[in-house]
Design a protein that fits this description.
Strand order of the largest sheet of chain A: 7-6-5-8-9
Helix content of chain A: 25-40%
Shape of chain A: globular
Radius of gyration of chain A: 19 Å
Strand content of chain A: 15-25%
Oligomer: homotrimer
Number of strands of chain A: 9
Order of helices and strands of chain A: HEHEHEHEHEHEEHEHHEHH
Structural class of chain A: alpha/beta
Number of helices of chain A: 11
Largest interface: A-B, 30 and 26 residues
Largest sheet of chain A: 5 strands, parallel
Distance between the termini of chain A: 11 Å
Chain lengths: 300, 300, 300
């Protein structure tokens, strides 16, 4: 990899991406998990935002490689004692970890920290900017079902404005030659999003036509209050993915979601739980393998 | 074992129980602890209730077997983000753990989750239903002091109504041939408890007569408010185990408690700290060994 | 070591100290980290106070030695259920850990617990009493820069009254033959501190004259309210270490701080970030090595 950090999908060449996807598939075989060669490696998960799945996924990935993994959540951190963000990172860096995995609700924090520390930094989600490992695991999920990503029609549906997952997926899918479209209510559409190389649809039925993959985004409850969306019920009626709306897509179109899902808001249980169409749990499974591959790539 | 889960003592045959007790004794020897053969195994502790001793005991048991152990407490979980209990479990299951160890304040949650996931589930305490590993460690503690459990007179004393420990112990001690009696104030006695094969005593002195083991139950402070019990002082006077009351039991009767103890409420310090009579700390010690044996049994 | 605990610097002979410092330097070489010989050892971090750096440092130290490390913070502990401090410690002790590492906001708690348990106890900071591993890592930091500690002039600057770091450093530096002075506003000076073998300066410029090392202490925000110190601004003006004040010391004087630092209160960023003068991040780095050495010493 040209960079020792993973801050943005933009840091990765196509060769880097293919490398990570190939390595990750290797880790799906249980025999390739625990490697004692990583027993002298230390990983610190520095999470300033609550998280179940991403934190657990990185923790498992590190431990399955045999590394020592330390979790630091903001609740127990010295930030409360008035230490600055950068001082916290430099203090942890002084303890000689191999990787610092950072999640923060402000865009740019992992980049800022990567300039200060000498270990590798992985962006585990920063504000509404990027979540590169989510995009990588999404790409692996698609690849395992559709073989080639190039040429696929992928629709990203929902709250694109606040979604770091959307941004990382747009970058990655474009790099790999997919055609990406955005389907979103006007209030949740970022300005000039077309400049990132996506086609915008403000009509859901039209937007789903001829689509191979529908990526449904998580809708934050705190946005269901008038400014962005009138109500949960209204949002589900017009933008929530149910069987009927999904029928506008290709017959074998598959459904993805970064989780955790809000049943009855952005996705109907009937679709989310359809094992023939929904890849949601497979995304979780592949997430651990992708993170193992990335960690191995960065610290070997 | 006939089941790949441990949800209830009822899942276990007498052979299963003896197997676990025998294995656990082997682990009391330090040389038999850390086994690298489990280094590719992953255990997730999914605790929806605060816990010191049970969580730490399971964590230590898993780590001493060389497995990777991940703790998830409700505070950091996506439940707060509106994800359902089952979605949380299925997400964790998708990460391919070998065992999910579940504690929840509602009866039946471990059973519900075991129907949805494909890893093993261990019930680490569900509501006022069961706490099977506590009963197993209690059985091992008794066995090490009294040799045979069959034929022993065991009294369970206190708040039986809310006690998952009582329920699991009643099932297990009955299976192993002990004679179980319940000593409890009428307000804390579950209806039809006799149907589980116990003898009920509403008089403490009488109930303790000829008893080999007194298992004192923990009294929840929140029940000391009139409905169940008039006051802490009143409860201690009539139902708290002190030296004088204990003198009603056999001369060599031993005292147990699942912990944490409330000194001066359900048990007097004089009895709790009597190293000739109290097995409380030994129960803790044997708890780690029992959990190691159970984990080994489920994932080997 | 003559004691199986480390509760106070007073427990250590000069030979013990030199032993730990020498071992710690060995661990600075990455090759000497992970040792599988400790894979059957268990360490419990029992922290009743929030901490980033000390907890992480001990956790990393234990894991790099290959031991199983379990963190218990008060938030998840049974203390909330009414269990006494000593019962908590004895319960953990019954699980057979090799070391209990204790931090508490009351002076004397580690000592109290060491009398009750049979594992080793390390004091990770107790009230305003002691923080012996901080003093050891400070000594190693000084030794690596000044070769000999004997004969050095070391000034400890700031809130000595509430500082466990100051107390442990006074004991240790005196043992190793340094000349220790205290520079402190009268309101933050403990009575009879001269009895510990230090020279007291109430004037900062005078106190820094001819000094080799300035140890700046952390100023707790909650003391900036009139009783101890009129205001943050006032404190910084008279007692905060900036470049101009530092010029009173020897030309090659070095600056230390136990962290986390309060920029613009007890130390100016210009000094804290001066890589030619500030040893703050090196202290953090050496802290992990010191704790590895101490753990190895106690449980080998």
């Amino acid at each position: 990899m040209k960079s020792k950090h993973l801050l943005s999908i933009k840091d990765l060449s196509i060769a880097d991406i293919n490398n990570i996807l190939t390595k990750a598939e290797k880790f799906l075989d249980k025999k390739n998990k625990k490697k004692n060669s990583f027993s002298d490696k230390n990983i610190i998960n520095l999470f300033f935002e609550d998280s179940t799945r991403t934190l657990t996924s990185f923790e498992l990935a590190g431990k399955q490689l045999g590394a020592s993994v330390i979790n630091m959540s903001i609740a127990t951190s010295s930030i409360k004692k008035g230490e600055t963000l950068i001082d916290t990172a430099m203090t942890l860096n002084a303890m000689d970890p191999d990787i610092l995995i950072v999640r923060h609700n402000m865009s740019g924090v992992p980049y800022l920290l990567s300039e200060k520390v000498n270990c590798s930094v992985i962006n585990a989600g920063d504000g509404s900017n990027e979540h590169p490992t989510q995009a990588l695991l999404d790409a692996l999920t698609i690849k395992r079902h559709k073989k080639n990503i190039a040429g696929l029609e992928v629709a990203i549906l929902g709250d694109v404005l606040h979604s770091r997952v959307a941004r990382s997926n747009i970058y990655l899918l474009n790099k790999l030659g997919a055609k990406v479209r955005i389907i979103s209510p006007p209030t949740l559409l970022p300005p000039k999003i077309e400049d990132l190389g996506v086609k915008v649809f403000k009509n859901l039925e039209e937007g789903l036509k001829n689509v191979d993959i529908v990526m449904v985004l998580r809708m934050q409850k705190e946005r269901m209050s008038g400014t962005f969306v009138p109500s949960e019920k209204e949002f589900f009626k017009f933008w929530g993915l149910d069987r009927k709306k999904l029928n506008n897509a290709k017959k074998n179109a598959l459904v993805m979601h970064p989780g955790p899902i809000n049943r009855g808001i952005e996705i109907d249980s009937d679709v989310a739980d359809d094992i023939g169409r929904s890849l949601i749990l497979e995304q979780v499974k592949l997430g651990v393998a992708i993170r193992m591959a990335l960690i191995e790539q960065l610290i070997k």
